[in-house]
Amino acid sequence: MYRSVTNRRSFIKKMAMLSAMTAAASMFPGIVFASEQEKNIPEDANLDWKKGPCRFCGVGCGILVGTENGKAVAVKGDPQSSVNKGLLCVKGYHQIMCIQSKDRLTHALVKRNGRYVKTPLSEALDIVADKMKSTIDTHGKDAVAMYTSGQSTIPEGYVASKFMKGAIGTNNLDCNARLCMASAVAGFLTTFGADEPMGCYEDIDHADYFVTWGNNMAEMHPVLFSRMLEQKATRGAKIIDFATRTTRSSTASDKSILFEPQTDLAVANAICYEIIKNNWVNTSFVEKHCNFSKGITNMGYGLEDNYTFADKPEPIDFEAYKEFLKDYSPEKVSKYSKVSVKDIKYLAAIYGDPNKKVVSYWCMGMNQHTRGTWINNLVYNIHLLTGKISQPGNGPFSLTGQPSACGTAREVGTFTHKLPKGVVTNEKSRRLAAKIWKVPYERIPPKPTYHATEMFRAVDRGDIKFIWTQATNPLVSLPKTSRYRPGMQKDSCFVVVSDVFPTPTSDVADVILPAAWHIEKSGLYGNSERRTQHWDKMVEAPGEATEDAWMFIEVARRMGYGDLFPYSKENHVEEIYNEYRQFHEGPKHGMAPLEVLKKESGVIWPYVNGKSTQWRFNSTYDPACSNGEDFHFYGKPDGKAVIWQRPFEEAPEKPDQEYPFWLNTGRVVEHWHTGSMTRRIPVLHQAMPHAYVEFHPEDAKSYGIRNGDQVKVSSKRGSCVLPASINERGLPTKGQVFVPFFDENMLINDVTLDAFCPISKEPDYKKCAVKVEKV
């Protein structure tokens, strides 16, 4: 009897899951399931399957790559991976197709007399080392810079940090994660004193509600979204889409709520107002585990060069916070947010119900924001006031956009202010780095220098004379590229680009170095849920394409720092990782040994006593909790999280009579970031061959614009011509246009504004003022 009931339940659950999968596949063609993938693999294929992580977004799906005769010929989702359970999106499924591209960079290219000349890699590395050294000798160590990537492996990021900060002694190192994740970092640090989400993807299996804040997960994180759809089908979990435009995520959600750009700040405060007004505060939790604070307001937007800002936290009490929220009643906020009073109260009731578990998810919509740190803080406020945090199915969760934005940028320390543990301004952190790196403590500068936007401003000004970019494409991805492209082309700056394919950034390089793609080398990534994943080299790279970490090491040795980089070419990944683990010993951030990572499909840190810590700060799950209470936010000295008083402030640039539209930018499911890989995958390129500008039908009608018409989108900074899209994939609100940024032939980032959050230094790609005209 028990067996039959169990089997029947399993059957029902399986059928519901298959129904959800079918619905997901029909609604969102970007989701591909393992069973579908395997249909394309010949039955008689004798493939050697090797595990690894996907090359694309921060979800960190496990993949199995099938190799035959030294070639990668197939990819499928790893059913052993708890991240994706055999699912992949269209990008993941087709990823290996790009490495066979005919324009693959296989040899070093050196610009001589205006032309690129094929050059032996050893000679090209000599040139890079000589130029880097002569620049330092002539102009000082802060005249050289390196710009790396959340696509770099953990060993690559670690070596870059050690090379720049430990060997050369400059903090002129930043990464493209500054453009996507810095606000999440600043939000975690200011609220909890420790970076990265406290929960994990298993929260999806427990939550009653998912609230997505400005996050089109159906296209940006389709595998996680499909897991949410499964919970919707099997358990009745509900998805609430809170966004500025209607997307595929909105279509699949139980409720879609649209807000005016920038006013998410006000709506979050209004939710807190309602929680307090209705006595939904978890008083015991707040009294034991929270403090209240406020910081500086009216802090500017970073539009001027050499902009500096330092927040000054000031303690307040609950009554002062409650008084502050009086300006954020639903009735007041509704007038300018365009969110109805009913919907604000609906959101508040979800968070305020003690019997409902809620996970908040966000990505670029909150982070790429001139008050990105603030909106992160405000969503944490909601979870802290209700005590819905650090528990299965309850918590705020910032998703990442790159495969190792967490592991390589946030953990390894490739931000200008970071070290592999701690920050450069902290003496204890500098002394630890100096000890492990075996360099004089005084060599590591105590102050940050240039974050990403300011780094390229410094190139434009001529303050930086040498810059080396790796695994990133800033001349498509930077805001206001119309300024930075000419800066990179100046003779005053020597540009080195390491990449797998030619890009608009490599077009301005003095030296182009051919990089190995991820399965052509061994490495490690760290995903959104603190999961570290290892893979072994699967196939040989073509020509002289080489691991970026090894090219860094070779240049460092040529510059006289060989004693700091004693690694062997055969085992450097293992040697570097074992050295890096020393930074994170202990229960708060312990990293799993490499032998464990080789066996498993990833391990979540902190890894303590042979076990992953899935929920941090909760003494039931986290061995690092030591205050004798149920919760311990040990990132802060007193073990308490901070509820921040953060106001609504207007965007730095709003539509006006001359520039009457908001411009919003983002991604599509077929393409990843600047498209340098996915546009070389024929099936993805054919599915989405070019960018477009999305209109609300009424706006299109008033301008006489039809689908496919060429439209010029212009701001005070630049312009871009694109075909119009009306009632196709997404639907902006009236007065807004949306453009994806993957297309290097339609450079929408020439139009965007380089304003940024003064705390996180992350630019706001989601809103600036533009005009449109039919061409």
From TrEMBL:
SMART domains: Molybdop_Fe4S4
Protein's name according to its UniProt entry: Nitrate reductase
GO BP term (any one): Mo-molybdopterin cofactor biosynthetic process
Keyword Signal: yes
Binding site for [4Fe-4S] cluster: 54, 57, 61, 89
Signal peptide: 1-34
Modification after translation, per record: Predicted to be exported by the Tat system. The position of the signal peptide cleavage has not been experimentally proven.
